[in-house]
């Protein structure tokens, strides 16, 4: 037991574990930041890379909350090790929800949102555009940025995807 305390006491002081956040030194905050960075990289490797790259609202909310929680471990407003553990729990929960969404289209639509048809058979669906706050000018802008063409004339279909991007299928 004494050997464990002999090891753990300097580590606690070095990392500022249990210290008042206002008393943390530059070095302690820096080391905490490096530790959180390393563990966050591990968390991102555990999580689904594809879902994080797509950035649906589901993924964006997860990333904002995870970043907020882990920042507390760096600035000392939460204990370092339990906060990192909580981050891993959040990653596992996000992965579980993504797994359920993979097998259940209904659940996927619930947490990620459904895609919406904006142009069908070359005709703009104004009710869908209005419901999603997308103007004709927005469609034209995405068309120029994605396909490098000016007119919607050759577009057979366009969809607002779960990620918030607009995809176009031309004739």
First-to-last CA distance = 75 Å
Strand content: 5-15%
- Give the overall pLDDT as a whole number: 86
* Class computed from helices, strands and strand pairing: alpha+beta
Order of helices and strands: HHHHHHEEHHEE
Model description:
- With 171 residues, the chain is α+β, with helices and mostly antiparallel strands.
- Strands 2-1-3-4 form a four-stranded antiparallel β-sheet.
- It is elongated, with a radius of gyration of 23 Å.
- The protein is built from eight helices and four strands.
- It has helices spanning 2-15, 26-46, 49-54, 57-75, 80-103, 105-112, 126-131, 136-147, and strands at residues 116-120, 123-124, 155-160, 166-170.
Question: In a few lines, what is going on in this structure?
Answer:
This protein has helices at residues 2-15, 26-46, 49-54, 57-75, 80-103, 105-112, 126-131, 136-147, and strands at 116-120, 123-124, 155-160, 166-170.
SSE layout and pairing:
Layout lengths: L1 H14 L10 H21 L2 H6 L2 H19 L4 H24 L1 H8 L3 E5 L2 E2 L1 H6 L4 H12 L7 E6 L5 E5 L1
Antiparallel strand pairs: 1-2, 1-3, 3-4
Helix pairs in contact: 2-4, 2-5, 4-5, 5-6
Q: Main traits of this protein?
A:
8 helices; single chain; 171 residues; 2 domains; elongated; alpha+beta; CRO Repressor
């Amino acid at each position: 037991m004494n050997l464990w305390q002999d090891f753990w006491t300097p580590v606690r002081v070095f990392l500022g574990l249990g210290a008042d956040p206002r008393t943390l030194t530059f070095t302690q905050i820096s080391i905490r930041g490096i530790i959180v960075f390393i563990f966050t990289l591990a968390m991102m490797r555990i999580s689904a890379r594809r879902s994080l790259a797509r950035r649906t609202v589901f993924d964006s909310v997860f990333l904002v909350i995870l970043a907020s929680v882990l920042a507390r471990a760096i600035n000392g407003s939460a204990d370092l090790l339990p906060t990192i553990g909580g981050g891993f729990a959040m990653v596992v929960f996000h992965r579980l929800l993504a797994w359920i969404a993979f097998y259940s289209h209904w659940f996927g639509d619930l947490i990620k949102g459904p895609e919406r048809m904006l142009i069908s058979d070359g005709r703009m669906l104004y009710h869908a555009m209005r419901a999603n706050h997308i103007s004709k000018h927005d469609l034209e802008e995405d068309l120029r940025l994605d396909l490098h063409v000016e007119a919607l004339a050759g577009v057979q279909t366009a969809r607002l995807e779960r990620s918030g991007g607009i995809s176009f299928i031309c004739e």
